[in-house]
Specification:
The protein is an alpha/beta fold and 218 residues long. The chain folds into 2 domains: 140 residues, HAD superfamily/HAD-like (Rossmann fold, 3-Layer(aba) Sandwich), CATH 3.40.50; 67 residues, Putative phosphatase, domain 2 (DNA polymerase, domain 1), CATH 1.10.150. It contains 9 helices and 6 strands; from the N terminus they run βαααααβαβαβαββα. It has a 6-stranded parallel beta sheet with strand order 3-2-1-4-5-6, with helices on both faces. Helix 1 packs across helix 4 and helix 3 packs across helix 4. The longest helix is centred in the middle third of the chain and has 19 residues. The chain starts with 5 loop residues before the first strand and ends with a helix. The protein binds 1,6-di-O-phosphono-beta-D-glucopyranose and magnesium ion (MG). 1,6-di-O-phosphono-beta-D-glucopyranose binds next to helix 1 and helix 3.
Length: 218
């Protein structure tokens, strides 16, 4: 097995439980519109962009929405989401995430963020971990969202590391597909049934020894 040189992290659901806030913000919007929305439908929204997420939610509505209405609704949801993430602090890091990032940093492993969220820089700042990243992909500049590999390839290119020497860490099925299509090693965080295409799956980052092994070859 190769010894990997870079770790490319997803944010929502891997480093912080912001996936929960995305769900609550969409749920609030869906309830206002009288559209059915639950955790199962929410699973399809993980890792994909804001407008694509809205399209999935509107599938359950008999009404046709104009482009302007959709933009208004997406902005409304983002307002709810921003209110929620304003209050997050270092305490909101998922268990093990901060320790893993610091250990990789100490080992000289390159670290990048490949989040589809346009709010990612603010979340990193509020979590107090922005300084640990060598590169953060600007989600606004990505043309094709996950499961397209673009976001992971852009991260690797900007780190100056070959894709085959990168490990991607993701909580969504779309994200795992993106990592595999980028030619990287995929670590899934969460439910093994949802993340069945990952190379390894961990329930969470509490015990990250399996991840460290990828960077030291033992
Ligand atoms: P925003 P990730 C993704 O972040 C979320 O998983 C997804 O649910 C969300 O729609 C997307 O970011 C866009 O977020 O509305 O903040 O731009 O998992 O790629 O870190
Ligand atoms: Mg995620």
């Amino acid at each position: 097995m190769p010894v990997y040189k870079a770790a490319i992290f997803d944010l929502d659901g891997v480093i912080a439980d912001t996936a929960r806030f995305h769900y609550l913000a969409w749920k609030k919007l869906a309830d206002e519109l009288g559209i059915y929305f639950d955790e199962k439908i929410n699973e399809r929204l993980k890792g994909i962009g804001r407008m694509e997420s809205l399209e999935i939610i509107l599938e359950k509505s008999p009404r046709i929405f104009s482009k302007e209405e959709k933009e208004f609704l997406a902005e409304k949801k983002n307002g709810y989401y921003k209110e929620m993430i304003e209050k997050i602090t270092h305490q909101d890091l998922l268990p093990g995430a901060g320790e893993l990032l610091c250990t990789l940093k100490d080992w000289g492993i390159k670290i990048a963020l490949a989040s589809a969220s346009k709010n990612a820089p603010l979340v990193l700042k509020n979590l107090g971990i922005a300084g640990l990243f060598d590169y953060v992909v600007d989600a606004a500049r990505i043309k094709k969202g996950k499961p397209d590999p673009e976001i992971f390839l852009v991260a690797a290119e900007n780190l100056g590391i070959n894709a085959s020497e990168c490990v991607g860490i993701e909580d969504s099925a779309a994200g795992i597909e993106a990592i595999k299509r980028a030619g990287m090693f995929a670590v899934g965080i969460g439910n093994p049934e949802v993340l069945k295409n990952a190379d390894i799956v961990l329930r969470d980052l509490k015990d990250f020894r399996e991840i460290l092994k990828l960077f030291c070859g033992s």
